[in-house]
Design brief:
It is built from 13 helices and six strands. With about 375 residues, the chain is of the alpha/beta class. The chain has two domains: about 210 residues, 3-Layer(aba) Sandwich (Rossmann fold); about 130 residues, no CATH class. A six-stranded mixed sheet has the order 3-2-1-4-5-6, sandwiched between helices. Helix 1 links the parallel strand 1 and strand 2. Helix 1 runs parallel beside helix 13. It starts with 17 loop residues before the first strand and ends in a 10-residue tail after the last helix.
């Protein structure tokens, strides 16, 4: 299934193209496997999305939003729907929120959650940007008082593609209108085996990459009222990734070496790249202890050193990851991986990305 647009109008804005993904996850009782796949595959999905190149050769920005629906622990007045995170470039926030999800009960209103995401999120007005909703669940797509047809029609008007992921049998998903929902916006209908566990291929490069990740963390310098908490969360999300094994922390580490991992809101090294004045303007009390007595010039030197260290470590991670990916390619048996969340999402993203002049190596 393809999504087409007028190629003539696809002109990248001055600040580059953006890939915007809103993930709507059913968190009713039967969806523990879906949530587990999302947790274990987050960094792999982000890494594959981040490998995209715009028509001008630049790498697009990436923003992700997260919703849960179908959970009886949520407000009935809101349709058992909750915005877990708005569209954000802070991937640690997405990881933090994703790992906080729990399942409970279940009244799944697909039309209403699509409409809610459309209305609440700050979708770009640029035709050059790739704007996508991925909704996953296992109940009829027709439930609730909000028509899925009207919701998908509104999405199409905004240039947002709705992709549907039925957790169960492919033909059952068609019978329950999941394919019809995707068809209305030129999206992709998929089915997955939500209870299948993510299979990793251990490599000789996982341990060295994990060690470099520890060094990489030391280059982050927090600032601001919430900076220290966000720095702590960086380590927490490392642990969450590691809970799925060394291979998964290697995936996260590679993401942290890429352009997709941005922390300008709390890390002074990233923030200074956007606005060097932030180094001087930050109050001493909002800096780490070792920086509080530094002069402005000393701060600049210190941040410059951390930036150089980070660039070097990131290059080492990228070099090792290239070897890691070659090892994985040569040692991965053919299986039903297409029935997993990550493979299904990436197939749709790449197919629809082509209509926005986005390209991936080998595609």
């Amino acid at each position: 299934m393809s999504f087409t647009t007028d190629k003539v109008n696809v002109v990248a804005p001055a600040n580059g193209q953006t890939i915007m993904i809103s993930l709507l996850l059913d968190t009713s009782n039967s969806m523990d496997g879906l949530i587990d796949q999302a947790k274990s595959q987050l960094w792999k999905i982000v890494n594959e999305v981040a490998a995209a190149k715009s028509g001008d050769g630049k790498q697009p920005n990436i923003k992700i939003a997260l919703y849960e629906y179908g959970n009886d622990g949520l407000s009935s007045d809101e349709g058992f729907i909750r915005q877990v995170s708005p569209l954000t470039e802070d991937l640690d926030v997405i990881s933090e929120k994703l790992f906080s999800l729990t399942t409970n009960g279940g009244s799944e209103f697909c039309g209403q959650v699509i409409k809610t995401a459309l209305n609440q999120l700050a979708w770009s007005a640029s035709n050059a940007d790739l704007k996508m909703i991925f909704i996953a669940g296992n109940e009829p797509f027709t439930l609730g008082s909000i028509s899925y047809e009207l919701a998908c029609g509104a999405a199409k008007e905004k240039g947002v593609v709705v992709n549907t992921i039925y957790c169960g049998d492919f033909y059952e998903g068609i019978a329950l209108s999941w394919k019809r929902g995707a068809d209305l916006t030129g999206g992709t209908f998929m089915s997955i085996e939500q209870n299948s566990q993510t299979v990793y291929v251990p490599t000789p490069y996982d341990n060295p990459i994990a060690a470099l990740n520890d060094k990489l963390n030391a280059t982050y310098v927090y600032y601001g009222a919430s900076g220290e908490y966000r720095k702590e969360q960086q380590l927490v999300q490392d642990k969450n990734a590691a809970s799925y094994g060394l291979a998964n922390i290697a995936e996260r580490s590679f993401c942290k070496s890429s352009h997709a991992y941005k922390n300008s809101s709390w890390d002074l090294v990233d923030a200074a790249k956007d606005n060097e004045k932030i180094i001087a303007e930050t109050k001493s009390d909002d800096l780490p202890t070792e920086m509080r007595t530094m002069s402005i010039e000393q701060r600049k030197v210190y941040i410059g050193q951390k930036s150089e260290e980070r660039t070097k470590i990131q290059a080492e991670i990228q070099s090792l990851n290239k070897k890691r990916q070659e090892y994985i390619f040569n040692n991965t048996p053919q299986s039903s991986k297409d029935k997993m969340l990550d493979a299904s999402m990436m197939k749709a993203i790449k197919e629809q990305g082509r209509a926005k002049n986005l390209k991936w190596a080998g595609c």
